[in-house]
């Protein structure tokens, strides 16, 4: 497991690392030290390699750890986040972010093992294979396959449609089936890939999704859809 630790002060980062090593010496393979500026640049480029990030959220900080955590949530929902806060400081905005744990400085040694165990437990419940990785606006994005309704082609771009957003990428449609190990994504048309899990019904040439959206099924891909649908749902 690779853990990133972010703080403006290197001595604080070193102290956090030493505490973790004292408490759980064999739980982490690699540590990466970041200043807020360095981590923000990595996140904006979609190139940070961490499984877990510890954000030292100081009381009266001039950098916004919550905003940075939201960016991490967006590009990699599988990355765990632990907030480390001052003993006399607390920010309610922490609860607007998907995070693993929040620890006060004076309780780091006491609770870091529990925080790491919680992250591992959460990670075990998530099948990382059920996601795809694409570049959108030069940023690497990890997207849960289950969150995708469909993908549509417009000119030279593909647009991934989820309940919350429409993500553009240069990935061709034919790549989506290859990237999806869960076998949810199915090509149904030269311009569409659909998530089988969201298909509510099908007529001869149309699919209706569970959100009411109608998509065309071409003759070329009709048998392919039937075969993949039977494999995904079973023949009964």
How would you describe the overall organization of this protein?
The chain is an alpha/beta fold and 236 residues long. It folds into two domains: 2-125, Response regulator (Rossmann fold); 131-233, Beta Barrel (OB fold (Dihydrolipoamide Acetyltransferase, E2P)), CATH 2.40.50.1020. It is built from six helices and 15 strands. A five-stranded parallel beta sheet has the order 2-1-3-4-5, sandwiched between helices. A five-stranded antiparallel beta sheet has the order 10-9-8-12-11. It is elongated, with a radius of gyration of 21 Å. The mean pLDDT is 85.
Output the CATH topology of the largest domain. Rossmann fold
CATH architecture descriptor of the largest domain: 3-Layer(aba) Sandwich
Major sheet? 5 strands, parallel
Q: How much is the radius of gyration in Å?
A: 21 Å
First-last Cα distance: 42 Å
How many structural domains are formed by the residues? 2
Structural class, by secondary structure, is alpha/beta
Query: Which residues form runs of ≥5 with pLDDT under 50?
Result: none
Strand content: 25-35%
**Overall 3D form:** elongated
- The CATH fourth-level homologous superfamily of the largest domain: Response regulator
Question: What's the β-strand tally?
Answer: 15
Order of helices and strands: EHEHEHEEHEEEEEHEEEEEH
CATH class of the largest domain: Alpha Beta
Strand order of the largest sheet: 2-1-3-4-5
Put simply, the count of helices is 6
Helix content: 25-40%
Oligomer: single chain
* Mean pLDDT across every amino acid position: 85
């Amino acid at each position: 497991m690779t853990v990133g630790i972010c703080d403006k002060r290197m001595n604080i980062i070193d102290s956090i690392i030493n505490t973790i090593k004292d408490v759980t010496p064999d739980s982490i393979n690699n540590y990466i030290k970041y200043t807020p500026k360095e981590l923000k640049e990595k996140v904006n480029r979609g190139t940070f390699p961490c499984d877990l990030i510890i954000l030292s959220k100081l009381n009266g900080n001039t950098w916004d750890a919550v905003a940075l955590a939201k960016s991490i949530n967006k590009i990699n929902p599988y990355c765990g986040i632990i907030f480390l806060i001052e003993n006399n400081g607390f920010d309610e905005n922490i609860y607007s972010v998907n995070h693993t744990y929040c620890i006060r400085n004076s309780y780091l040694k006491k609770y870091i093992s529990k925080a790491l165990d919680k992250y591992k437990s959460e990670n075990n419940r998530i099948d990382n294979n059920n996601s795809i990785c694409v570049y959108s606006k030069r940023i690497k994005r990890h997207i849960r396959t289950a969150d995708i309704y469909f993908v549509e082609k417009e000119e030279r771009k593909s647009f991934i449609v989820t309940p919350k957003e429409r993500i553009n990428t240069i990935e061709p449609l034919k790549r989506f089936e290859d990237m999806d190990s869960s076998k949810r994504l199915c090509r149904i048309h030269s311009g569409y890939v659909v998530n089988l899990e969201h298909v509510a019904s099908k007529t001869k040439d149309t699919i209706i999704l569970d959100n009411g959206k109608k998509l065309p099924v071409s003759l070329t891909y009709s048998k392919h859809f039937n075969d993949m649908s039977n494999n995904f749902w079973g023949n009964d």
